[in-house]
């Protein structure tokens, strides 16, 4: 290829990358409540073991799930039904595990959502009803009771020769399916100091939180402890600690953005942050396509002749080398808008862009955290 053509290609692509006007994007203002949690104000996980009844022949098989029969026997005996030495083999019940989260400051009588999942060999929980099941914390104390009709998003249909399954028919949910029976004691009014824990620790963002709180209060009540913790002194603030936190958590600030590139290789999704920088690097993207087609031909003997039918392979290989490989030189300290616009100018698809970003990272020119999912 003539050197002049390469020079013209380089020049055109470099101009397409660098002549684009940079796009300036200001970071959005965020509330403190959206980036930090109050230490001690948290949910608690609950779990329980129970039975789902009323299934249309899609429950556990007793031979493969003997614990289902045992649980059913215990429930019936508590209700005054003697089933000892009885030979019953129901197929309309399923053993399940129930999980839920007890939110902070949940009071007796309030209701919470629960998730239900089969642990046996049931094929579907559609149409089932969860029997009263206690939900306990890791310490064994019971904090809620779950019961109700299941909502299943998946389904399963089968015939003699085929079956169709969509979603997950062996898992479901019960909105407001559990009632809180015990409260977790926590007196927030007695707190004189609280700690704010950043969900994504960062010294810059933590410093801005400290500055925002002190500026709003008018005196140094917030102290930066580390990259993820800010301690706030609530003494002397008007109202009780709950009123003070209600005012402080709605203060806004500009959070520091982390240079990060997230790549989902299954769907071909790429998410790049505004702070992503790229050093000087050359990018080349080829266009090579190989197609292989099989068209076998059957060779048969002449009529009334002797011989066997033979299948002769016929393979066609087609190699297509499309447009000449384009090479682009990315200038020093290119920002996200420049990088995306330049790769789009090359006609790069999202999946090809994933490979390019990986290669740029391996070359040490991508100054950002690369997260692969």
UniProtKB/TrEMBL annotation:
Keywords: Bacterial flagellum, Cell projection, Cilium, Flagellum, Periplasm, Signal. InterPro entries: Flag_FlgI (IPR001782). It comes from the Bacteria. Assembles around the rod to form the L-ring and probably protects the motor/basal body from shearing forces during rotation. The basal body constitutes a major portion of the flagellar organelle and consists of four rings (L,P,S, and M) mounted on a central rod. Residues 1-27 form the signal peptide. It is found in: Bacterial flagellum basal body. The gene is flgI2. This is Flagellar P-ring protein. It comes from Algimonas ampicilliniresistens. Belongs to the FlgI family.
């Amino acid at each position: 290829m003539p050197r002049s053509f390469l020079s013209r290609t380089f020049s055109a692509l470099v101009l397409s990358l660098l002549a684009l006007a940079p796009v300036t994007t200001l970071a959005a203002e965020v509330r403190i409540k959206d980036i930090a949690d109050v230490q001690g104000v948290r949910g608690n996980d609950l779990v329980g073991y129970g039975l789902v009844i009323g299934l249309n022949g899609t429950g556990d098989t007793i031979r493969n799930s003997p614990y289902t029969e045992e649980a059913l026997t215990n429930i019936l005996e508590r209700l005054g039904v003697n089933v000892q030495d009885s030979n019953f083999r129901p197929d309309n019940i399923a053993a399940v595990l129930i999980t839920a989260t007890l939110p902070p400051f949940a009071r007796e009588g309030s209701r919470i959502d629960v998730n239900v999942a089969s642990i046996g060999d049931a094929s579907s929980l559609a149409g089932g009803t969860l029997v009263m099941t206690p939900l306990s914390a890791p310490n064994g104390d019971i904090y809620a009771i779950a019961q109700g009709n299941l909502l299943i998003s998946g389904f399963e249909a089968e015939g003699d020769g085929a079956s169709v399954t969509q979603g997950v028919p062996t898992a479901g949910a019960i909105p407001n399916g559990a009632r809180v029976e015990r409260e977790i004691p926590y007196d927030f009014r007695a707190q004189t100091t609280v700690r704010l824990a950043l969900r994504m620790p960062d010294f810059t963002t933590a410093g801005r939180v400290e500055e925002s709180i002190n500026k709003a209060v008018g005196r140094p009540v917030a102290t930066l402890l580390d990259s993820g913790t800010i301690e706030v002194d609530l003494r002397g603030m008007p109202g009780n600690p709950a009123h003070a936190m209600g005012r402080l958590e709605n203060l806004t600030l500009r959070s520091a953005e982390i240079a990060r590139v997230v790549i989902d290789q299954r769907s071909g999704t790429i998410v790049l942050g505004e702070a992503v920088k790229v050093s000087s690097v050359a990018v080349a993207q080829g266009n090579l396509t190989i197609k292989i087609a099989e068209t076998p031909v059957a060779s048969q003997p002449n009529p009334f002749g002797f011989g066997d039918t033979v299948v002769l392979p016929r393979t066609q290989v087609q190699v297509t080398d499309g447009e000449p490989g384009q090479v682009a030189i990315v200038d020093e300290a290119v920002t996200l808008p420049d990088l995306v616009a330049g790769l789009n100018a090359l006609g790069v698809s999202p999946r090809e862009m994933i490979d390019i970003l990986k290669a740029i990272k391996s070359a040490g020119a991508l100054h950002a955290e690369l997260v692969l999912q």
